[in-house]
Amino acid sequence: MQLILKSFQLKLKHTFTISRESYDSQPTLIVELKSGKFSGYGEATSNPYYGITIQKMKDDLLSIKSIIETTENTSPEDFWKLIYPRLQHNMFALCALDLAYTDLYTRKKGIKLYEYWGFSIKNNPKTNYTIGIDSIDKMIAKLKEKPWPIYKIKLGTSEDLQIIQELRKHTQAIFRIDANCAWGVDETIKNAIELKKLGVEFIEQPLKADDWYGQKEVFLKSALPIIADESCLIETDIEKCYNHFHGINVKLVKCGGLTSAKRMLLKAKKLQMKTMVGCMTESSVGISAIAHLLPLLDYVDMDGALLLSQDIAKGVIINNGIITYSELNGTGVELNPTSTLPKEKG
């Protein structure tokens, strides 16, 4: 088995702004694992908030290259257990590797990943489409540019309620709110009352990630369900979030890939918490991997590739929120030939 690393700069259609940052492009790392005629693909984007760079992911993966390349035909679950102790300091790199190995393993078996897991895809949820923070006029323009049944609206401004009031005049779609840790306790409780009147389904991560005392108060008093994001990174966070949040939003890059994400979702479901998976502006490589977790989800935010001006891969197709799987096995992705870069040396 051969480890191949490729990095790309994903350009966005619009500047994307959340409460703590803005960006026009997103660096991403593609991991390819090649075995004979088969290749499996994984992805992880860089993230300054978590101190993750493309170079750090490359360095950490190359440091265990010999272990990766000499391990083959074991299950994805056993592969994750083998690699985790060596990459637990860099869950983003572990994610990209886990996705690639899981894709390769199921491709070689001649089945799609959801089939390997024994999932039915009959009742998959629709994905939302995200509107980043901007002037109200520009947010309305973005909404009109992309008619959609469910929108995720990024907030964390001095005019948050006004934004939703104005957007509501232009669509009857479901709204989901993501404050990205920008609100306080009283602000969240008051906003939830008004947002519920405006057709908002839930609020995602209103408080700072470590404000567990405040989050308990919000959990008890909020008029809307509260979903954890920054407070729920890895498996041990599920128990912390229980009775502090109504649900969790799992990010593959934060928890170390599909293998651990699946465990987290099953654990949350046992606790009767709402389940969601979100994206980190990945290409269709990462987005197609998320699609195979849909049968475990109440909500999903997998619009990352839709936000790009040009995708580097083909995989699942998303139309009006509905996800259609690729005909390919595994996670169902292939890199676009014109975007492929030479193999990294080392």
Would you kindly provide a brief summary of this structure?
This protein has two domains: 2-110, Enolase-like, domain 1 (2-Layer Sandwich), CATH 3.30.390; 116-334, Enolase-like C-terminal domain (TIM Barrel), CATH 3.20.20.120. The protein has 13 helices and 15 strands.
3D structure, described in words:
- The protein has 13 helices and 15 strands.
- The chain has 2 domains: 2-110, Enolase-like, N-terminal domain (Enolase-like, domain 1, 2-Layer Sandwich), CATH 3.30.390; 116-334, Alpha-Beta Barrel (TIM Barrel).
- With 346 residues, it is an alpha/beta fold.
- It has helices spanning 54-62, 65-69, 76-87, 91-109, 113-116, 136-145, 160-168, 185-197, 212-221, 237-241, 252-255, 258-270, 284-291, and strands at 2-18, 21-35, 38-45, 129-131, 150-154, 174-178, 200-204, 226-228, 247-251, 274-278, 299-300, 313-314, 317-319, 322-324, 334-335.
- The strands form 4 sheets. It has an 8-stranded parallel beta sheet with strand order 4-5-6-7-8-9-10-11.
- Helix content is 35%, strand content 24%.
- It is globular.
Mind sketching the topology for me?
Elements: E1 2-18, E2 21-35, E3 38-45, H1 54-62, H2 65-69, H3 76-87, H4 91-109, H5 113-116, E4 129-131, H6 136-145, E5 150-154, H7 160-168, E6 174-178, H8 185-197, E7 200-204, H9 212-221, E8 226-228, H10 237-241, E9 247-251, H11 252-255, H12 258-270, E10 274-278, H13 284-291, E11 299-300, E12 313-314, E13 317-319, E14 322-324, E15 334-335
Parallel strand pairs: 4-5, 5-6, 6-7, 7-8, 8-9, 9-10, 10-11
Antiparallel strand pairs: 1-2, 2-3, 12-15, 13-14
